[in-house]
Amino acid sequence: MTTERRLQPLTRRPRKSGGSWRDVGSLHPGVRDPRSIRLSEWPVSVNAAIIASLALISAFAILSASIASPVGPVREWARWTDEQGTISLEHPGGWSVRDIGADQPHILVLRSEWVRIHVISAAELASAAEAYGPLPDEATRYRALELLHGSAGEAWAAWMGNEELEEGRISRTVIGGNRAVWTQFRYAGSAIEGGEPMTGYRATIISEGGGIIAGAVAPTSHWDEFRPIALRILQSIRLERARAG
Predict the structure, then answer these.
(1) In the chain, which end has fewer C-beta atoms inside a 10 angstrom radius, N or C?
(2) How high is the pLDDT of residue 63?
(3) Checking DSSP bridges between strand 171-175 and strand 96-99, what pairing results, if any?
(4) SS3 helix, strand, coil % of the chain, rounded to 5?
(5) DSSP H/E element including 65
(6) Are 211 and 184 in contact (CB under 8 A)?
(7) Considering only CA atoms, which of 9, 33, 5, 30 is closest in space to residue 163?
(8) Which residues is 157 bridged to in the sheet?
């Protein structure tokens, strides 16, 4: 993406949510803060012989902890579906998945506060989908979707806690049989992210029954590692009409 623009200051805030990813404090086991390395001190009361015999093991354990990635390896995948059966997606096994929304779904796939995926079914997109269907041709529909994606960027910046979000050029794609557009973005991390530079993808997807804003974010220093995981998760998103009854 060679062209980048800076979003204008926010003119509106996202709808009230029943929770926030910032309220989720527990980390996935083995996650290391990308900003620092914490080394535990060996207890001074242990027998010297035990210290000597276990020194090598301890050294390997400390080294492993210090270089562990906040992304971590993915050994298996699972599929999650919401209770209404309207949204489903693949996610790495062992990662937390929950709906933290109140008046609208907000699916959070969480490895840690630095590595996460948001899938938000904004009510505004449902009304936009109604006007989207009658548009005369494919090019017009994608153009309308690009405009919608741009306006949704304001709310996305607020969700990320940083109004100075920078994004690249909009690209077109298809996700789960539905038209979608996406951008890559970056920002200086919020307080909970310790100011860590962050990079991510943001997509807007429209289906017959509505639409979603989806995004994946990770520390810029580990983006190359997270990128294929993010792409698989975003490409796995499926939207269905609500089950009758």
Answers:
(1) C
(2) 41
(3) unpaired
(4) 30, 30, 40
(5) helix 48-67
(6) no
(7) 9
(8) none
The string of pLDDT tens digits covering residues 203-243 is 999 887 778 899 999 999 999 999 999 999 999 999 887 65
The model's pTM: 0.71
Residue with tokens 């008046």: 103
Q: Is residue 3 included in any domain, yes or no?
A: no
d(CA 218, CA 224): 10
Residues 55 and 83 in one domain: no
CATH number at residue 113: 3.40.1000.10
Burial of 103 (0-12, 13-18, 19+ CB in 10 A): exposed
The total of structural domains in the chain comes to 2
Q: 10 Å Cβ neighbour count for 23? A: 9
- State the residue range of the domain holding 102: 75-239
Point out the residues of the chain with pLDDT beneath 70.
Answer: 1-68, 123, 126, 128-130, 132-133, 161-163, 242-245
CA–CA dist 67, 31 (Å, integer): 10
